[in-house]
Specification:
binds fe (ii) ion; Rieske Iron-sulfur Protein; binds FE2/S2 (inorganic) cluster; Naphthalene 1,2-dioxygenase Alpha Subunit, Chain A, domain 1; about 375 residues; 2 domains; 7-stranded antiparallel beta sheet; alpha+beta; about 25% helix
């Protein structure tokens, strides 16, 4: 984030704090509970959003060298990611073209060819069919060129591997997808970070509830009273939308000190956390010396797979720093678990039918904006 943007955003919050006002939208809103429960709606969200828009599937370091591969189940879609000899990242369906077996059962490794465990049809890591046992007798006239692995649109951008599962799209352009946010995402230099540790959990709550949990500071004082609440100001945060992506500024309790300092000394990282919510599935929580990647994969209306990864600068991945980063990862898990437990409770409450609608206050405007983006995407 450039210096003048940092100052503008901090100044706005310093003034709000001085006038004892939260950051307010024009009005508060009510939304229908069905949006978190309906299978019909979830099917549309899955088609138009989760399988219809670009998403991050891996960090570039998950494919560390030519020949590296990684498999994953991305919301029900079995994927094979590879890095070719020339360094290019590619994505395929991890599905054999003979009779549909799972082609690569291993989670990761280094291989230049993939041989199906059923009858040994074999592809190279660019997806080209290179061997078929008993081909001449069993499959006379088989056109190998039309039996490459089914590809998924893939681009490596800003240190991340992105895919687009949409059947209609025929190219992928992440810089364009991120629009005005692309510069700040690139400036995070994710490519110069490594995954220190990752924790994956399946949470019985709708994916939108888990995104919403990060978009307001109204709950900090109450829900995080035993963890991070003292580090932050009560009910103060701002947000800016870039297309469907959101940047949230979460000021820490040191923010008021800035009034005593010349603006030229103000630095966002010292006085606020920034949360980038990339629509739909990834959030980056930027802290002073590292960031957390929160990836949500919607599994059903009431279930989401969440992966929390502590991303640290590559040069800080030293033996002396291991304990420090491990403590950070642990604190992130404990704090976010407080949010996830609340989301689970909300989902149970929604399923009880007690409420017909939920209320987003004027200082929870980012939640209303996010839900409007979801509606727009499935319209
Ligand atoms: S199903 Fe893969 S080779 Fe037969
Ligand atoms: Fe929270």
């Amino acid at each position: 984030m450039d210096k003048s943007t940092q100052i503008t955003l901090l100044d706005e919050l310093v003034n709000l704090h001085a006038s004892k006002s939260p950051y307010l939208d024009e009005r508060w809103e009510q939304i229908d509970c069905e949006r978190y429960l309906s299978q019909e709606r979830f099917t549309r969200e899955q088609a138009r959003i989760h399988r219809g828009l670009p998403q991050i599937v891996a960090h570039s370091s998950d494919l560390p060298e030519p020949g590296a591969f990684k498999t994953l189940n991305f919301g029900g879609v079995p994927l094979l990611l590879t890095r070719g000899e020339e360094g290019q990242a590619r994505a395929f369906y991890n599905v054999c073209r003979h009779r549909g077996a799972e082609l690569v059962p291993e989670e990761s490794g280094c291989k230049h060819r993939f041989s199906c465990p059923y009858h040994a049809w074999t592809w190279d890591n660019a997806g080209k069919l290179i061997a078929v046992p008993h081909e001449k007798t069993g499959f006379p006239g088989l056109d190998r060129s039309t039996h490459g692995l089914h590809t998924v649109l893939c681009e490596e951008y800003a240190g991340w591997v992105w895919i687009d599962l949409s059947r209609e799209a025929n190219n992928i352009d992440i810089a364009r997808y991120l629009g005005e946010m692309s510069g700040e995402i690139a400036a995070m230099s994710a490519g110069e970070h490594v995954v220190f540790d990752s924790t994956t959990m399946d949470i019985p709550a709708n994916w939108k509830l888990l995104v919403e949990g990060g978009l307001e500071a109204y709950h900090f004082r109450v829900a995080h009273r035993n963890t991070i609440a003292p580090l932050f100001l009560d009910n103060l945060s701002s947000y800016q939308c870039f297309g469907r992506h959101t940047r949230s500024i979460l000021p820490r309790s040191t923010l008021p000190e800035l009034r005593e300092q010349p603006q030229s000394n103000w630095r966002m990282g010292e006085h606020a956390n920034v949360l980038y919510s990339l629509f739909p599935g990834s959030q980056f929580l930027v802290q002073e010396d590292h960031f957390v990647w929160i990836q949500g994969i919607a599994l059903s209306p009431g279930k989401t797979r969440l992966k929390l990864s502590t991303m640290i600068p590559t040069k800080e991945n030293t033996p002396e720093r291991q304990a420090y980063w491990a403590r950070n990862h642990e604190l992130t898990l404990i704090t976010l678990k407080e949010d996830f437990d609340l989301a689970e409770g909300i989902q149970r409450g929604l399923e009880s039918g007690a409420n017909t609608h939920l209320n987003f206050g004027r200082f929870e405007g980012a939640l209303a904006a996010f839900n409007a983006f979801v509606d727009d995407a499935i319209a």
